Amino acid sequence: MLDGLTLQRRQHPSRRLTFGSYAGGLAAGLGLSAVLLLIAGVPPDSMVDDLFTQVFVDPGGLAQTVTLAIPLVLVGLSSAIAMRIRFWNIGMEGQLWLGAIGAAGCAIHDIGAAPLRLPLMLLAAAASGALWIAIPLVLRLRLRVSEMVVSLLLSSIAFLLLQHLLFGGWRDPANSFPVSPPFDPVEQLGLLGFGNVHTGLILAVAAVVFTAILVDRTRLGFQATAIGLNPLAARAAGLPVAATTIAMVLLSGALSGLAGGVIVAGTEHRLTQFIGMNATFSGIVIAFVARFKPAGVLVAAFAVAGIYNAGNTLKVFYALSDGIVVLIQSVVLLSLLVAQFFAAYRIDRVRGVTA
Question: What is the pTM of this model?
Answer without folding.
Answer: 0.89
